[in-house]
Each structure stands twice: as structure tokens, then as C-alpha cells.
Amino acid sequence: MLESSCMRLLRAGDSSGFCFNHKCFEALFCFRHMLADVKPNSVTFIAALAACAATGSLRYGKEIHAHVLRRGLASEGYVPNALLDLYVKCGHTGYAWAQFSAHGEKDVVSWNIMLAGFVAHGHGDIALSFFNEMLETGEHPDEVTFVALLCGCSRAGMVSQGWELFHRMTEEYSIVPNLKHYACMVDLLSRVGRLTQAYDFINRMPITPDAAVWGALLNGCRIHRHTELGELAAKFVLELEPNDAGYHVLLSDLYADAGKWAEVARVRKTMREKGLEQDYGCSWVEVKGDIHAFLTGDESHPQIKEINAVLHSIYERMKASGFDPIESYSLEDKEVSKDDVLCGHSERLAVAFGLINTTPGTSIFVTKNQYTCQSCHGILSMISKIVRREIIVRDTKEFHHFRDGSCSCGGSG
């Protein structure tokens, strides 16, 4: 099953320009064939587990875990941490916790993997408690530890805790903040609406801010609709990363929320001229050990008629309840969803396929190569309420756990 899954994904990638995790699927395909002739060592198992973690291939990851146990390599080198990473990134923190607890010797990497996992799943408060437990064991945190913690504070809106950690990092542990730490702090301040404070913080930085730092401010301006400061942030961002589609979309959304359609059109025109609207979205879901990939605008899946029928039925139920799933506006004589540029909405197809092919009541886990837009976020929230299922989407930013109409991230994409 893995072989057919990988080949289907590779074919999809070749036909669409899609390359995210392309090599990971290819690696798993090669590993499967390798098992017939060669006994893998711990390094090979680590690489295979990393590929499973990157692609969300939990079932095959468990098979590799079984191979590791049979070979007696579960405690060798980085293997324990590779297993931790697998279960965290596949959305099974329970498995990860069991693996973490079972492994006697833990290093700072083990703690960091668990911390990052709690943060990615929206459990900033648990991450802080876990950090205190880490300190009680005598483990010394490193710069990666604080990136995870500051990110957790940012997503949970814990401003005072974030400031405390930022100061402790330098004063107690002599860790010099790098650009990732500064970006987390700007994101923390921007998300809660302290945009002027975030801008002043950037101006006081002892190192030159990069695109991620300015991008965090731009995102905050988008959230809180501060067009003037957002334009300033975008100016710096696009000077540093002129060909990044994501930052162009943030700017486009900033203008769209302000009703500045001429500016939206200008940004979109720039994107078309630079070829930035050609990045295809892809989502994949594992069902009964087989991985099914769904590309933006792709109608080639054998069950596509059933998938579209399910989505149409769900959309009709949403409209009947007063929620319009299709948010669009007219631009240049063309109906365009403002989120279509980067999202692609491929996760909707993956979720619908999961609904058709899994037992009612079971969770659906989808991995996506791009971020989840506000439109899809709202639709998936509604789907989780309508079908009474948990839907987990791992995009490029974080995990989204949709349950009964709400999401673990607390936001709308």
C-alpha cells in the first residue's frame, strides 16, 4: 500500500510542480524496497522515521517502530528522539508522552520535542508546566527551548509570561536572543494588539530584523486592521523577501479587510507578474494505511464525484444554518476568493475523503503543505460540528484541532 501511495504522490508532484515533502515520500518508497535485501541500521531508521514525521504517515511510522523494537535499536543514538518527533508531528501526543516516559535517559532535545509538540497543538499552558518540570530534573534549556516557549506564549496570548521568559533566557541562562526569539516577541505583542509596542521593540533590536520579524508585525496589523503600520511593515518585508507569496497574501488581506480593492488588485497583479500564484496546495490523508493526496483544482481522484457531492451537501447545510461557505468578491471582472491565492483549499477535499472512507466518530488527520486560510478554517470548524467528528489539520504553521465547531488555535486561520 505504501508503494502505491508514494507513487501516486510522486506522480501528482511531477504533474503540478508540487515538491513539498516530495523527497520524503520517495525516501519511504526506497526504504520499503530496501527492507527486502538489507538490514537497516539506526541511522537508516532515523531517516525513515523523519520522513514519516514530515508526511504524517503514522501507520507506516508505527511499522518502522516495530522494526526498531525487533532489532533492539529503540534506545540507540537519536532513535528515541526520532520516535518522539514522529508521534508529536502525527498528532498523537499520547503516544509521544508514553515514548518520552518510557525512555530513561532524556536530553534537552527530548524535552524540546515535547515542548514544541505541546505548543503546536495549542497547549501553551501545558508547555510552561512541562518546562518547570524540565528545570526540576536539572536539565539546562537551550535557545531552541525558548523559541518553543515564546511561540507558545504568543499563540496563547500570554504576554507577561512571554516577557518573563525572554528576560530569564538572557539573565539566568546567558542565552543571547537570536532572530527567532525576536520574531516570537514581535508576534506575541502584535497578536494581542500592542502594535506600537511591537514596532518600538523592533526599532530597539540590537540586530537587524529579518523578514520574519517584520512579517510578524504585518500579520498583527492584518489581524487588528492597522493599515498604515501594516504598509510600513510590508515595505520592509518585501524588500527582504520580494518573492515570498505568503507575505504578499498578508498584504492583500490587509487591504481587503480595509476595503481597498484597488490596492488588492495591485498586489495580485504584482504576484501574477512574478509568478507567485502558481504554487499549488496539496493535502494528504492516511486511510487504512494508504495515503491519498489532493492537489488544488485536481479532479483526478477516483472518488472525486463522491467527494464533491459530500462537500456540496455540507455547504448546503451550512447555508441553511446561516453560514455562507463561499466568501468572495469581484475583482477585475472575476470572482476570486481572497484566500485562494495561497491556501488552495485542498484540505477540504482530504477531509471529505476521510469522511467517506472512515468509520463515523473516528478522527480525521490531514497534513497540508501550505497554511490554512480563514475561509477553510471556518468551514472545517462547521464540518466538525455537523458530522460530530474531530478533524486535525497540520499545516505549515501549527496543528488545528477542530471539535464541535471550535478550534484549538482559538482563531480563524
From TrEMBL:
NCBIfam families in alphabetical order: PPR
Name this protein carries in UniProt: DYW domain-containing protein
Keywords noted in UniProt: Repeat, Transit peptide
Residue spans of the PPR repeats: 107-141, 142-172
Molecular-function GO terms, alphabetical: RNA binding; zinc ion binding
One of the GO biological process terms: RNA modification
Signal peptide range in chain numbering: none
UniProt domain DYW: residue ranges: 332-411
The keyword Repeat is assigned to this record: yes
Pfam assignment, any one: E_motif
Source organism of the structure: Triticum turgidum subsp. durum
Domain of life: Eukaryota
